[in-house]
Design a protein that fits this description.
The chain is of the alpha/beta class and 345 residues long. It contains nine helices and 16 strands. The protein folds into two domains: 2-151 and 293-343, Alpha-Beta Complex (Quinone Oxidoreductase, Chain A, domain 1), CATH 3.90.180; 164-287, 3-Layer(aba) Sandwich (Rossmann fold), CATH 3.40.50.720. It has helices at 52-58, 139-143, 146-156, 190-201, 215-220, 234-237, 277-283, 296-307, 324-333; strands at 2-4, 11-16, 27-32, 40-49, 81-90, 101-105, 122-126, 130-132, 181-185, 205-210, 225-228, 241-246, 260-268, 286-287, 315-320, 339-343.
C-alpha cells in the first residue's frame, strides 16, 4: 500500500524504445505509471538530466565486450537523473512526504540496463537514493547534477560506498587535493565542469583542457590555466602534475602518464581500453577508477554546495520530453558545455 495524491489516471507520457539503435528509435508515447514497492517513493518528474549511459544503452552498449552487453526487456525506458516532486510514498517511508521537491540518480548501476526508467512523467525510486532538491536551483539544474556530480565527488573526495569495484581489484582511493596541481581533461562536459569546481574548492591549482570556446566559462568556474586541445596537445606541454582527471577516458587516456610526476595519479572516468598499466608502474603512477553509485545521503550533502552557489550546474541545452530524440542528436554532436536536460511540464 502507499500514501499518494489522487492522480487523474494511471498512465503517463514516456520515452520508450523497442530496439537498440540511434536517436530515431526513441518514441514518445503512453506508458503505465510505475507501481510503488516498499521502500520507494514515486516522483512526478519535472526534469531529466542526460548522461552517456543513456545513449550507450539506447545503442545496446556496443562498445562493451559481448559478454557485458545488456540482456534487457523491451520496451525500454532510459535515464537515471531526475528532479521533481514526491507524488506518493510507500507506507514504510517516513523521510519524505507528498509535495517534497527532490532529486535522484535512480538505480545506478544496478538498474543501468533499463530498470531506472527516468525518461517519463513518473518514476519510482528507492528512498535511500533520493535527496531533497537544493532550494537555490530550479528543477532543470537539479536534474543536471546527480550522476555527473556524484561521479566527480566519488572519484575525487569520498567514495561513499563499500561495494566491490567491477572495474579493478582494488578499492578506489581519492587523493589529497589541497596544494596539488590537478589537470582535468574534458573539462567543459558534465563530469569535467564539476571536477574543475571540486578541485578548486579543495585547494588545488587547476588546469582545464577543452576546446577554445569553453575557456571563458572554465575560468569562471575556477580554472587557473587553460589548454585548448585543438591547438596544443596537453601531453606535449604539461609535466609534474599530481592528478589527472580524464573525464573522457578510453583508449587514449594513457597519453597523460607522461604528464604526471612520480607518485601522481591518473583517474580515467571511462577506463575501458586503457592498456598502459606497465608504463604506469614504471613511472610510479597510480591509475584508479570506480563505478559511480546512487547515494541519496551523499547527494543531499553535496546539494548544499549547489544550494549556496559554491558549485554551479551548467546547462548546455533544454528540450521537452517529447523531443528526447533531438536531445540525443545534440549529444551526438559533442562539445557539450555542461549538461543536456529534458523538461517536463
Amino acid at each position: 500500500m502507499a500514501r499518494e495524491k489522487v492522480m487523474p489516471n494511471k498512465t503517463m507520457k514516456a520515452i520508450r524504445q523497442y530496439q537498440f539503435g540511434g536517436p530515431d528509435v526513441l518514441r514518445f508515447e503512453d506508458a503505465s505509471v510505475p507501481a510503488l514497492k516498499a521502500g520507494e517513493v514515486l516522483v512526478r518528474v519535472h526534469a531529466v538530466g542526460l548522461n552517456p549511459p543513456d545513449w550507450y544503452l539506447r545503442d545496446g552498449y556496443r562498445s562493451l565486450p559481448p559478454e557485458w552487453q545488456p540482456q534487457t526487456d523491451f520496451p525500454l525506458i532510459l535515464g537515471t537523473d531526475v528532479s521533481g516532486v514526491v507524488a506518493a510514498v510507500a507506507d514504510d517511508i517516513d523521510d519524505f512526504v507528498i509535495g517534497d521537491e527532490v532529486c535522484s540518480m535512480v538505480r545506478f548501476p544496478e538498474g543501468m540496463f533499463g530498470e531506472s526508467r527516468a525518461y517519463a512523467e513518473y518514476v519510482s525510486v528507492p528512498a535511500s537514493q533520493v535527496a531533497l532538491k537544493p532550494a537555490g536551483i530550479d528543477h532543470a539544474h537539479a536534474a543536471g547534477a546527480p550522476m555527473s556530480l556524484l561521479t566527480a565527488w566519488q572519484f575525487m573526495v569520498e567514495l561513499g560506498h563499500h561495494e566491490p569495484n567491477p572495474l579493478q581489484s582494488s578499492r578506489h582511493q581519492p587523493v589529497p587535493l589541497e596544494g596539488r596541481t590537478v589537470l582535468v581533461n574534458g573539462a567543459a562536459g558534465g563530469v569535467g565542469h564539476f571536477a574543475v569546481q571540486i578541485a578548486k574548492l579543495k585547494g588545488a591549482h587547476v588546469i582545464a583542457v577543452a576546446s577554445g570556446k569553453h575557456e571563458a566559462l572554465l575560468r569562471e568556474l575556477g580554472a587557473d590555466e587553460f589548454i585548448d586541445y585543438t591547438k596544443t596537445p596537453p601531453e606535449d606541454v604539461v609535466r609534474d602534475i599530481d592528478l589527472v582527471i580524464d573525464a573522457l577516458g578510453g583508449p587514449t587516456t594513457g597519453r597523460f602518464l607522461s604528464t604526471l610526476k612520480r607518485g601522481g595519479a591518473l583517474f580515467p572516468i571511462y577506463p575501458l581500453g586503457f592498456d598502459g598499466a606497465e608504463e604506469a608502474a614504471k613511472r610510479g603512477v597510480t591509475v584508479s577508477t570506480t563505478q559511480v553509485r546512487s547515494n541519496g545521503a551523499q547527494l543531499l550533502e553535496i546539494g548544499r554546495l549547489l544550494d549556496d552557489g559554491t558549485i554551479r550546474v551548467v546547462v548546455d541545452s533544454v528540450y521537452s520530453l517529447a523531443d528526447a530524440r533531438k536531445a540525443h542528436e545534440r549529444a551526438a554532436e559533442g562539445h557539450i558545455q555542461g549538461k543536456i536536460v529534458l523538461a517536463i511540464e
